[in-house]
Amino acid sequence: MNHRVLFARIPKGVPVPEDFGFDSVPVPSPADGQFLSRTLWLSLDPYYRNVMKGNQLYADRLQPGDPMVGETVAEIVESKHPDFRPGEIVVVRNGWQEFALSDGKGVAKVDPALAPPSTALGVLGMPGLTGYAGLVYLGEPKPGETVVVSAATGPVGSTVGQVARLVGARAVGIAGSADKCRYAVEELGYAACVNYREGDLREQLKQACPRGIDVYFDNVAGDTLAAVLTRLALGARVILCGMIEAYSMDKPPAGPWLGPVVGARATMKGLVVYDWIHKQEEQRRVVGDWIRQGQFRYREDIAEGIASAPEAFCRLMRGENFGKSLVRVSAA
Ligand code: NAP
Asked: Which of 156, 182, 201, 262 gets mutated to test ligand 1 (max ligand atoms within 8 A of its CB)?
């Protein structure tokens, strides 16, 4: 028999075992073009919580009674697929069950000689790729820079921290216990690791990152993100990877909800106009030409006389101005 764990209902808050069910069905037989595999390892990933609430970011859709979805490492036991042989180990989305059929789409073979097969679900799999690609290609860490990562000892975070160290950056972890922090420093080679459950996180970050934070790889969002943002160095890069703090919430937390930034793969950048002074001449020329050609419009909200400045300013701050707020102090 094939023992399966089913999705029973959308959890309220943090999932509880009652949100799942169990059943047993006969082990299926492969049709032509399919193989049957026996699950060896099931990956548990935070994003399943989002799948359970129907988040559209993911391809997975669950109805009550469906076997839970998820990535697995499995051994092929019977095959009617030309590319797969019994005995081969593969990464396949069997979900939370002991056996499943596959048509081979999206299936990757695992070389057990490379590393233990379970790593294909962790540091050599999807979470590892997340940490590696996110840090290398979005974070672009440079030697000597300070890279901070939250959930520092998980598969994503431990990849980020170690890649940072190996490219010559200074890795600083944020983790949720003294044990995790000790492991981060002693085993993973973080220069420092702060425990956000003990003491003031901002103060701890100040101590651990005296020159500020050049790259922040965020796995949790919420208060941790808020604390890190106060310590960013000039030109810092912030990679929004995960928001686990919010996954079990029914409504997004207060403040701007950055979930859509992740979904849209968007980039947010700080802008200080003074960095662009060298473009002023270009801007005057380009926009000035457009104005003269009648292609570019502008509007001015003019108050008359210096005495009207306070009220005009207050109108501006109440949002009652309409166009560029100006005071005509004297006639030209
Ligand atoms: P993980 O680190 O093994 O597990 C989650 C960790 O998050 C926990 O151990 C805990 O570590 C920390 N955490 C902080 N606040 C939490 C809260 N309120 N509830 C539960 N855990 C909390 O997980 P992972 O697989 O490596 O994933 C890390 C993050 O990356 C997740 O947010 C995940 O969704 C995200 N992710 C994103 C992508 C993507 O494509 N953007 C891909 C994969 C994973 P501490 O005790 O140390 O805080």
From this structure: 156
Domains of the chain: 2-122+300-328 (3.90.180.10), 126-275 (3.40.50.720)
- Find the mean pLDDT for residues 2-9: 95
**What is the C-alpha separation between 137 and 141, in angstroms, rounded?**
9
CA distance 212 to 200: 16
Length of the chain: 332
**Residues 66, 41 contacting (CB under 8 angstroms):** no
Nearest CA to ligand 1 atom 7: 151
Asked whether residue 58 carries a pLDDT value surpassing 90, the answer given is: no
Ligand 1 pocket by C-beta < 6 Å: which residues? Answer: 45-47, 127, 130, 151, 153-157, 175-176, 180, 219-220, 241-242, 244-245, 262
Nearest CA-CA partner of 244 in 31, 59, 58, 48: 48
Which strands make up the sheet holding 35-42, listed edge to edge?
A: 99-102, 35-42, 72-79, 89-92, 108-109
pLDDT tens by residue, 234-258 = 999 999 999 998 898 888 788 888 8
pTM above 0.85, yes or no: yes
